[in-house]
Fold this sequence. Notes:
Elements: H1 3-40, H2 62-90, E1 102-103, E2 106-107, E3 125-130, H3 135-138, E4 140-145, E5 155-157, E6 164-168, E7 171-172, H4 181-189, E8 195-201, E9 204-210, E10 224-228
Antiparallel strand pairs: 1-2, 3-6, 3-10, 4-5, 4-9, 6-7, 6-8, 8-9
Helix pairs in contact: 1-2
Amino acid sequence: MSSSGAENGATGAREHALKLMERKDLLQAELDTQMAILAANGANMNTALVDGQGFPVANIDVYAVRLARVRIIELRNDMKGLMDDIGRALEGIYDPSKPLPRVNGTDAGDGAGPSQRLEEMDPFAKVTGVAPGSPAAEAVSTRGSGTRLDDTRHILQGLQREDLVVRFGALMGGSVAGGLGSVAAYVSEHEEQTFPVVVRRGTGQVVVSLTPRSGWGGRGLLGCHIVPYVP
Length: 231
């Protein structure tokens, strides 16, 4: 395939992934609305709606809660399928086996030449905790191994504890020397924008498509704890 054909293919894959992510945002917004109905009634997916004598609980709109629960289950099933679709779409965009892309017209990283591969780079940060239901936990990720993606590519869920960060968006080891302040700034500057985070997990590489956002129910835009990594 010619270079122009490859670029057009990557552009098409990116546009497809963005459309899927827009659909994900719509599903998430409706899911948040249904969850708000439960919260307004002081209920969750498991709260009993009848008392010990079999009568409806007085302070709960039983009908509204039941409808919300049914819709939440439907939305979660739709979201699961959509996340799988997004993961497959991202495989056409982010490949850990390929040389690092250029950022703003220059080779990404500090001292990383255009031919340097991610597996040759040292991690600069470590994930020490991830909150359930957070953007970091729910992000789509694709596993790679060695110098190429596995023939059977696995769609995994988000960042995980003990992940070693090799690349965070456009940031790599040389650009975050002296602390992780630049990572925090990068997250703030890219709220509601999706970017790749490459981590080492076990013996393989994982590319996580991360979208910082507020209003997910916890602290921060990611819901994870990252510290500097020293081998």
